[in-house]
Amino acid sequence: MLNTTDFPDQPASRRGTRLRLAGGALTVTALAAGGVAVATGAGASDTVWDRVAMCESSGDWDINTDNPFYGGLQFTYDTWKGFGGQQYATTADQATKAQQIDIAQEVLKVQGPGAWPVCSKEAGLTVSNGLGVDPYSGTERASRSETRTSTSSSSSTASAGELVVDGIRGPKTNSGIETWVNRPVDGSLDRGDRQALQGEVGTAQDGIIGPVTTSALQRRVGATVDGIWGPRTTSELQGYLNRNVL
Prior knowledge:
Layout: E1 17-22, E2 25-30, H1 48-57, H2 77-82, H3 97-111, H4 119-123, H5 127-132, H6 141-151, H7 171-180, H8 191-201, H9 211-221, H10 231-244
Antiparallel strand pairs: 1-2
């Protein structure tokens, strides 16, 4: 157990769970527990991930207090990188809230709620409700799908079997990637999927989608090559998949 005095900028009253990779294996360390109230009623957090963040970082998705933990869900550099976060930003605090939730869902698939041993209990996090949140809308995935169907303009509406070119890497885009790289299709990019994608674009198959892999993907799909996988790259990828795969 870490002592809160190791991190002088860290409020002693905050319940914190810290994700980190050590010796190649993912481990989780909990800081000393203190009382933290989870907001309810008016002004409450929108999703279970907001409640986890309220417990972890007082809901500050941009937090960086010069300790080893970053962002609303308090990722270490190695965990953020190991689960593919550097497709978005170098450290979690530089990524958007939606991107942090996206990577947290990848951690949840591997570690379960125990990756946040204190705050998952405070927030009521489960595998089901954690994965059920759409990071980009803050709603359940089914609701987002219904909204998209009813509100998409003619320029962005996809034909049957095609992807909506909206820059959002959700389950349908992930499924398109899995189809492209000849992997089982389940709408979630696991390590094997990421390795297959790296093989497709010609980079080292370590399962980590960092700047090198992202740059190679950008060259393949015709996106601006900057090593950062953001909405523009996803849009170009969606168009590429529509033209060449789906």
